[in-house]
Specification:
- This protein is mainly beta and 308 residues long.
- The two termini are 30 Å apart.
- 10% of the residues lie in helices and 32% in strands.
- The relative contact order is 0.23.
Length: 308
């Protein structure tokens, strides 16, 4: 996941990827098999969660048009200079971060996604950027009611950029307020009890590399000893920053996707392919525990009686 604080890939990882060939590598994500699925492929229960997740856009990329809003996005393949055969290359890519509705007018995202009041004012929060049916085009023209402005920052915490050779650490979250209540979308419950343990199953919903909504499952917690951060083998890219990571058993939000390794690798063909690791390889992806932000998230009726 290429985010502000990436890591350098090892020579061994590069050799494995290039040996697979660029077309084959395009059929995989970061950790093990590529588990990403479009909205139309999800179960009804998964769609209910996805309907309350959002993409974050620069205001200049959301244009008012008759009857709605136009999302200005280039193709994923052309924008990133991808090699032939990379999955989703033909889809539009334009969102810069992801998030989840956690209150009637509150969105939980990563702190580095909304860095200031000025950045908030320049941000548009969009529901429904997704591929809704098989063979259909991604929704880039949406009803105006699905687009919101960031009206303010309720709470924010993000680590300072690290120095040379120093990895970032610490919680990275923001709770932002929308300009109005989110109509037709239900706030998602968060885990207010004990956090996840190593081996607990996870899935993530968000906008990898700014693409239309994707759900990626088949992941698990690797290390839960990092205080406000835990590490997991989630298939995540830049654009997933701020994505909610859900417990596979309880379907509660366990945390906010925060940072990880580099997304793509150069090839001798002078084009990019996704970085691929074994399921237990690579550095893993860092997730800020939702408990770090829970004090700023209102309790929902659905959260009553939570137990682990």
């Amino acid at each position: 996941m290429r985010r502000p604080y990436g890591v350098t890939l090892t020579a061994a990882a590069l050799a494995v990827l290039l040996a697979a060939g660029s077309a084959a590598a395009g059929d995989k994500s970061i950790y093990g098999a590529d588990d990403r699925r479009d909205y139309y492929e999800l179960t009804p229960a998964q769609r209910a969660l996805a309907d309350s997740t959002v993409s974050l856009w620069d205001a200049e990329d959301v244009e008012q048009v008759p009857g709605g809003a136009l999302l200005n996005a280039g193709s994923f393949g052309e924008t990133y200079g991808l090699c032939p055969g990379v999955r989703f290359a033909e889809q539009p890519s334009g969102a810069y971060c992801s998030g989840a509705l956690v209150g009637e007018d509150l969105v939980l995202t990563a702190g580095h996604c909304v860095t200031s009041v000025a950045r908030c004012a320049e941000t548009r929060v969009v529901f429904g950027f997704a591929v809704k049916r098989e063979g259909g085009s991604p929704a880039t023209v949406l009803p105006a009611g699905e687009v919101y402005s960031c009206a303010g920052i309720v709470a924010r915490l993000a680590p300072q950029p690290p120095g040379p050779g120093i990895k970032p650490s610490g919680a990275d979250y923001a709770v932002i307020r929308l300009d109005r209540r989110a109509a037709g979308h239900a706030p998602l419950p968060v885990n207010r009890g004990a956090g996840p343990r190593p081996g607990d199953g996870l899935f993530i919903i968000g906008h990898p590399a700014g693409l239309p909504l994707k759900l990626a499952d088949g992941a698990a917690v690797r290390d839960a000893s990092g205080g406000e951060i835990f590490t997991a083998d989630l298939d995540a890219f830049g654009g997933n920053s701020g994505s909610p990571a859900f417990n596979a058993r309880t379907r509660l939000i366990e945390g906010v996707l925060t940072r990880g390794g580099n997304d793509f690798l150069d090839t001798p063909q002078n084009c990019l392919v996704p970085a691929v690791y074994p399921q237990n390889g690579g550095r893993g992806e860092d997730v800020t525990r939702v408990q770090a932000a829970a004090a700023f998230i209102p309790l929902l009726p659905a959260e009553a009686g939570q137990a682990r």
